[in-house]
Each structure stands twice: as C-alpha cells, then as structure tokens.
Design brief:
eight-stranded mixed sheet; 10 helices; 303 residues; alpha+beta
Length: 303
C-alpha cells in the first residue's frame, strides 16, 4: 500500500529537538512508500525493458534489484523577510533519492539483465525528494535526529524484499543504496568529520592538508565507517588521557558520531587530487609544446 501521505519527519524518533517547535521542523515521506511510488512511476519503462530483453512475463516475478542514489544538500538562506510564525532555522536541507537502475536476475540465468537505466541521473526531474528539514546542515545533532528515522527505515529495507504489482503480476524487489549524491561538506557531516576548515582533508584516509599537498599521487583509502565509529568512541572517552591536540592527532579529524555508512569508493577529494595531477601533466606538455618532439627525454620535458 502506498497511501501513506507526508508524515512528521520526527516520527520514529523518541527524543525531542528543543530549539524549534518539533511540528514545524521537518516533513518527509516514509522511505518504503516513496520507493513504491517511484517504482510505480517507472512501471511502463520496466515492462518495456522486460519485453525488449525478451523475458517472459511470468518467469520474472522475483530477482529484481533496484539501485538507489541518495542525495542530500543544504539549501542556503530561506528566511522569511517579514514573516510571523514560529522560530525556525533559516536554512533547509533536502534529502532525496533517484532510481538509477532496475535489473532482474531470472531464475535459471547466470547474469542479471538491466531493464531500466535512468537516462538523466543528475537531473532534478529524476530526483524524488524524500525529506525536507528546517535545519542548518552544519548542526550535526539536529541533522542526526532528523535523518535517524530515515537511516533506520533504510537499514530495515536492506535486508527485506518489497512485493509490488508491476504489469499485473506481484514482483519481488531488493534495494541497494548508494550515498553518492552528497557534496564534500555533507559527506563530512555524515561521517562525523570536522568541517571543511580542518587540517584533515579526507573522510576515508588520514592525510593532512600538508601531506596531501606534498604528495599528490599516493593516496589510498585507509579507513572505513566502522573505524570512524571507533575513533569517535576514542574522541568521546579519551582512554589515554591525552591533551586536546594529541587526541585530535589520534582520531584524525573525527569529531562526531557518523550516522550514515558510506561506500568506501573514491571520494571527491581524491578524484580532485588525481585529476589535478593529470591536468598538470597535460598543461605542462601543451605549454612546453612537448607534443612536437618525438619521445622527449625527462630533461626535455622538465625544461
């Protein structure tokens, strides 16, 4: 059933958020309901995909996999200029989802067949808002409280299947979530890292700004979400009774409890570093007109 409408974003969360009246602070859809309605919107596309791949309708009732891209970003200043009403933060955060692809693994097949791929995955037209919150994205505690119920629903859905009528037959769907739509500021927020001014640049490795600027190539991912949680515990309990500076050095920029697990993929910062190195080479070659020489030596390149 997908007739649950917009609900109070704090439902599913027991404690109160003090500063603003809780009934004004957030509105959201239940995660599973939002996914059902997004899938129903794609019903015709999925049926067409099944027909094109020559899959018999009745053979494909289970084995559907849906890849979800989650995005979350702050929306800047949205203050009322002359408004009355309750006191709410003057920034908003929107959490939204995009169905990236739907694939199906038929019972007797080895490989899954993709029956739908979102043609414009970065367009706002394919991006379905799930939750709208009056909150400053750098207010870690309130953001955690508001996204907590969403994370709980998402974790519940990872292990369960959704049975939904598509093309007149009940079909079973599994969901895979990828949090690839967060910008660097939001990723740091979700991972419980210090904000962007921190000397530790990355959510997944321990290099500081100084180290990153010295070494633009040899970056590797050295930690994951569980380890960030362990570091938060160290930060919270300070088991070695260290000074503030020593403690920061030990946890490498983790300062709050991470509440969204992120995939240990190449993050934006490391992409930037890698791209910078590549472009640097290209610019040098272009400026020095190295392309005119046949197999230039290292010395010729450098000069």
């Amino acid at each position: 059933s997908c007739n649950v409408g917009i609900i109070n974003g704090l439902s599913g969360w027991s404690s109160s958020v003090d500063d603003s009246p809780a009934d004004t602070i957030t509105r959201r859809f239940r995660y599973d309901v939002a996914l059902v309605s997004a899938l129903k919107d794609l019903e015709e596309d999925m049926m067409e995909g099944l027909r094109e791949s020559g899959m018999e309708d009745s053979a494909c009732t289970s084995g559907f996999s849906v890849m979800i891209k989650e995005s979350c970003d702050g929306m800047g200043d949205i203050s009322e200029k002359h408004g009355g009403g309750p006191v709410v933060p003057e920034k908003a955060v929107r959490f939204s989802i995009t169905i990236m692809s739907v694939s199906v693994l038929a019972d007797d097949e080895e490989e899954a067949v993709t029956i739908f791929t979102e043609p414009k995955p970065n367009s706002e037209l394919s991006c379905k808002p799930l939750c709208l919150m009056f909150v400053d994205e750098s207010d870690h505690e309130t953001l955690t409280a508001l996204l907590g119920p969403i994370v709980a629903e998402r974790n519940a859905m990872k292990d369960s299947r959704l049975i939904l009528s598509i093309g007149g037959l009940p079909r079973s769907f599994r969901f895979h979530f990828r949090g690839t739509g967060y910008d660097e500021k939001m990723v740091r927020e979700m991972e419980g890292m210090e904000a962007s001014g921190s000397s530790y640049v990355c959510t997944l490795c321990d290099s500081s700004r100084a180290e990153a600027s010295q070494n633009m190539v040899l970056h590797s991912i050295t930690r994951n979400h569980e380890e960030n949680l362990e570091r938060y515990e160290i930060w919270r309990t300070n088991p070695f009774s260290e000074s503030g500076e020593e403690l920061r050095e030990r946890v490498k920029g983790v300062s709050a409890k991470p509440f969204m697990e992120t995939q240990p993929t190449m993050d934006a910062l490391h992409c930037d570093i890698g791209n910078a190195t590549e472009f640097y080479k290209i610019f040098q070659d272009e400026i020095g007109e190295v392309y005119q020489k046949v197999n230039p030596s290292r010395e010729e390149r450098r000069s």
